Amino acid sequence: MPGPESLTAADRAQLEDCGIALAEAGRQLALLAAHAAGSTTPRATRLIRPATVGDGIVRIRDEEVPDLLVRAREAQHQGRFLKFVPASGAASRMFRSIAACAKRFPDGNSRSLRAAADQGDADASDVLALCRLLPAMALGQALEDRRPGILRSLQQAAEATAASSLTALFELFSLQEPGASGLVSLPKGLLPFHWAGEIPRTGFEEQLAEGRHYLKDAGGTSRFHFTVAGEFREQFAGALEDVRRHLAAAGEGFEVAFSEQQPSTHALALDETGLPARTADGQLLLRPSGHGALLGNLAATGGDVVFLKNIDNLLPEDRHAAHAHWKLLLAGKLLEVLAASGGYPAQARPWRVCGVVANRGEPGGGPFWVADADGEASLQIVESAEVAAGYAGQLEVFHQSTHFNPVDLVVALRDPAGRPWELERFLDPARALVAEKSEGGRRLRIYERPGLWNGAMAGWNTLFVEVPAWTFAPVKTVLDLARPEHLDPTRLGLRKR
Q1: What is the pTM of this model?
Q2: How many angstroms separate the CA atoms of 113 and 124, rounded?
Q3: Does the pLDDT of residue 179 top 70, yes or no?
Q4: Where are the domains of the chain?
């Protein structure tokens, strides 16, 4: 079993340079090795029952709304609000169907894709549907700008019976196009999601446009913090300047900070031989370790009341005001519980209010009552990968969930005295995960830190609040941009036959 003793002097120096303690590296290697050996040791997450309305989930009553909005607006005008958005993830998963078809149909023959689609091939069906819909999508404009005439060509390829090539589509979404980075390599935040009039608006720009409806203080300033990958930081900064020129009204400003995941939060991996995975030059392979690695970034914002939201959960401009209403209600609930408890209960710990939606079968986690190591029950957000397999009936309990976690949180990061909480104190390290992934043709076991809203907040006070399903509009695949909540139906008439 690999442990600290298996690490060379060069390995130890590399870990020290990154700020990773040797003991922490050893702990990760032991967990990875146990997983490789087929350990059945149950994880700390043990489900009792799903949280439901009236049993862990509350509904906001009509008579509560005015008071909650007053509380929220007062805090907003005082400048207490900030929005935190993880935005470093690449868009590769979003274009998985395109990548699969590019590999299986390298000549891009549209007739071959149609034949596969007729046989029930989901990837081929998705690609053909995308070709038909791209002219109406803001993303389609990005393709047209790179290669004029491609939208007309793709539409004809998808709808005609004659064979034609889709290789241009595959090239534009890959790294194959000369002189272009390829859309698949970009973070989601820099991809066009919606139209703002006749101008494509990226996910990053849409987050700013939406957030100002519930963040803008009495002086007209809205505050944001985005975590980004270092290689794209300048592009995000450039996009911010575009927003300031085109979006900001007179007397309205955006205060935006960017940060990157710290190397000290990177994690080790094991290769197929059960040894620490290494790069081509023999160094330890150290990888970003999931959203849980951003706990330090969240703390470093110095925020007071902070909204958390994924970069890919967005609504277009015409729904921003309605969505802001619910964001303010969640913030009002947080402020209400803080005031009702005199700030905090005797067991002092941070508070979070989590919006949850009715479960529609989306992949991801949900709200549950969970037993800790001492059998004490608490409200937690739990992913399916966290379910303790060593306990009978856990998957059955998980699938009984009535609600889903859309990552719509409002959190209080300061204690009653106004001091920042030491967030690491409330993390449950036992809720780390081991994931099996492929990288560079190798099968790897990857350590992932406890999720930011899962194990990283396991020790927080939690209130679940039901919000309307329409407030959750994720973009996990490129065709999600064709859902009614994202696509302007009037633009479907722009397609030419």
Answers
A1: 0.91
A2: 5
A3: no
A4: 4-78+264-295+306-466, 92-185
